[in-house]
Amino acid sequence: MTQNGNDHIIDASDRDEQGRPIARPRLTPSQDTRDKVCLMPPAAVIPIVFLPGIMGTNLKALDSGNSVWRPPNMDGVGSILDALAQLFAFWFKGPATRKRQLDPTNVEVDPSGSIDAEDTINEELARQRGWGSVMRSAYNPIMAQMELRLNNILKACEAMEWWDAEGQREPSDYGEQHGNPKLSEDELKQAARYRYEVWAGGYNWLQSNIQSAADIKAYIEDKILASYPEDQRAKMKVILVTHSMGGFVARALTEIHGFDKVLGVVHGAMPATGAPAFYHHVRCGYEGIESVILGRDAAEVVAVAANAPGALELTPTFDYAGGRAWLKLGDAAESMPGCALPASGDPYQEIYKNRAWYGLIPKHNEDLIEPGKLASNTQKIKSIGGSRSSFTAFDAKIDDVQAFHRQFSMKYAKPAFCHYGADTRSKTWSETRWQGRLSGLPDELQVENDDGNGRLTVTGGAGSIRLEFADPIGAGDGTVPSESGGAPGDAGVEAIFRQGDQGIGAYVRKNGNGKDKGYEHQSAYNDVRAQWATLYGIVRIAKEADWA
């Protein structure tokens, strides 16, 4: 409809409690004879489902309903105080308590977390759409931005401010590597034919990603699509936006389960072929203040990770970095036989199921899998043997991990758009190394002492050798190395954005505050570079919609 310049325009900018658009016209004086034109948003809807990363979904106990996992938000004074309270609580939780509380079979999604929709929709509606199930400070901002920007693309057939300026930049300015064009007028018009409603898809990140994908499939079918008019449902599809492990869930959903109600996917900060950082955490614990919650040493991390299929699936895949060795043993690993693994492209046998001192869970750490068997919570872990049953169950999980990795290798939804951090200043484990001067073959050495924090003493024919886990030196986002984040670029995805000082483009190096730095993994979606790539991808995906 064409508006006359003298028309009185009324926006339907408010929402009722169900999220439906409403207009609030006012009576005008009788002498005001202008036409009153109400600009209504589109009736057709494209639901957007945000899938968070590992540890980004709130969890509660199945039996009691008590919260067992709620990642601390750090976006305000109240949030910091809450985080401090959580730190205090986790300080006294040993391995056995952590394992019991974070048992994949005894938890479920907790939708009661705090919400900040930034005035885009009311809190009640946001909660109905699952926003309270995910980490507020990491994910609510991008969810609110999608709700705002995507529902304000055109007004009276003209591109609105953001889309007319920032939205018209070249994708290459933000690090796109496949030569994709900027958004066209037709693409904006097509996208503007739909209303966008943003949902959160929290999931049990402790269980396998295949099971989480099945849960998300049911959530989309029974909760999201079921909430829309039946005449729209037959053709309606959702767009998935993922962070980190959420990308694994999406790939399992479309490529393993074959779910056909997905219009397209935007992946952010996805460890597409795994992350060597996982090996570090299992052998050394986490670092800094986050270690109090995530695990201060091997004992606290293994208790949870070794029993969580979802976490184990983040190990580097058989095709990580093209099959290149990523675990180095000793200072001269590259020139010594058996010191650069995997040597034959099989990390499952060579590292994850290997009981030698350099394995993911070596023989002397076996009882950490079942911490209730430990006699005491000692500072130093000696060679303590253990029953065979712990490794039997663990090895079965690794077999499942290998099967999963092979099922979804190089497979992505069509279309898929990806963005990732590639910055040398965000030091990331692209490979891992036990530093020290080894003598003899690694398998001939025996563990003398392992403090569970990255300091190890082994002994052989030449006596004791002290080893220390090396700091990260690779490029990435601090968690996902660029080798893994960029892997989808070789697998036929529609677009791949490399962002940080390793990217090429006018806006790849600086964040929204103008600082020349990369973005951190957990808060990737709070960065303007990732946000731009996300909005671009969604509009491109919307070209495929045909139910308006």
Give a description of the structure.
By secondary structure, this protein is an alpha/beta fold. The protein has 3 domains: 8-39, no CATH class; 45-275 and 409-426 and 476-544, no CATH class; 277-408 and 433-475, no CATH class. It contains 17 helices and 23 strands. A 6-stranded parallel β-sheet has the order 11-5-12-13-16-23, with helices on both faces. Helix 2 runs parallel beside helix 12, helix 7 crosses helix 9 (246-256) and helix 10 crosses helix 12. The relative contact order is 0.14. The model is unreliable at 374-387 (pLDDT under 50).
Reconstruct the topology from this structure.
Blueprint: E1 8-11, E2 14-15, E3 21-22, E4 36-39, E5 45-51, E6 59-61, E7 67-69, H1 77-91, H2 95-101, E8 107-109, H3 123-128, H4 136-150, E9 154-155, E10 158-159, H5 161-164, H6 185-191, E11 195-200, H7 209-224, H8 230-233, E12 238-243, H9 246-256, E13 262-268, H10 277-284, H11 291-294, H12 298-305, H13 309-312, E14 327-329, E15 340-341, H14 347-352, H15 388-408, E16 416-421, E17 423-428, E18 432-435, E19 446-450, E20 455-460, E21 463-469, E22 474-476, H16 482-485, E23 495-499, H17 528-541
Parallel strand pairs: 1-4, 5-11, 5-12, 12-13, 13-16, 14-18, 16-23
Antiparallel strand pairs: 2-3, 6-7, 6-8, 9-10, 14-15, 17-22, 18-21, 19-20, 20-21
Helix pairs in contact: 2-12, 7-9, 10-12
